[in-house]
Amino acid sequence: MNRLFPFWKALALFALSCLMAVPAWATPAFARKQQLACPVCHSTFPELNETGRAFKTNGYRFPDGKPGEGVQVTGMDLGSGFVLDPFPGIAVRVESQPITLAPDAKGNMGLSSTPLDSAELIMGGSNGKHWSYWAEIQSAADSGYIPAGNGIIEYRAMKELEAYVGWTPPFSRDPYNAISESRRIDHVDHAAQDYTGSTGVSISDEAGEFGAFGEVGPLYYNVAITPGPGVLPGTTDPLDYFGRVEYNITKKVGVGGYVFAVNTNGGNTVRPALDFNALTDFGTFKAMGQYDTADSAVAVEGGWDESIQEKGFWVIPQARVDATIVGGSTLVTPLVGVGLQASAGRVSIEISDPLGGGNTMPSTTLFVDGLF
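Above: the chain's sequence. Below: its structure in token form.
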């Protein structure tokens, strides 16, 4: 323990220095464009609160105008009823993993570093009353820094029906905190979202999609068809299908589920799932469970995080437990973490330990996120 103390001391000092160095977090694209504070739409960035969910499902518009105003900021009127936003929301996100303390295959602890884990250009906004868009270009270490991107174009006919087409992960249109990884604050892979199984396909993989979503009273839905995550256009492969519903018990509490039907040349499976999410005065709670019919596999998770405002910064504790059961074997992965967020960005430390995975010590990673 004494040998590890200097490491933890150095880790803490490095975290504080990074917090002062990374770009401004309090001015992401939409907040800067709408001149609103981030908490208007986020419980803990990037997780959405009820206002943020309405903003996203309404094609990146506030349904009743900007909070505190009676009209929606629409940009420049070019005539004939066509309204073009001359300042699309643009942001840059940079993520670093300066220090990771983790066991190797033999259980020996060692240090590693990924100074630049990923860099991402994000753009989104709305044009007129019906059209909206979202696009991302990313370069990440795990893909050899080869640039990759995804994006969608949406047409909102009415509150009950919005059609879209694009290259994006399944359920990326989902505004709730339980399913979409883009709505989660932690960095470690999730049991359900990242489960690939015998088909080699996960619901986090990007795919060409044509779909629709909307709200009918308290019910949200999303349906789509796709040639399959990771399948490039023009490739012969059976179509995949997915559908999603969420029932809002209140504006802050919802229950729902999804079905993802995977049809690949390598095999077929159906993945039904249930999820729960709640925004409370004690933080954001979420849970989900997924079953894979081909592998008879179960993947479940439960998580919590909170944003505690202090003078000039926020403290963000989090906890999560994942479990995957396949063929009689069970892998449970608990995760705990804490982050510090200020106008300069966010620094967080996450500790995870795959129980039953063969390692005797947990992995500890320092993450530095900047969004400006």
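The first strand starts at residue 76 and ends at 77.
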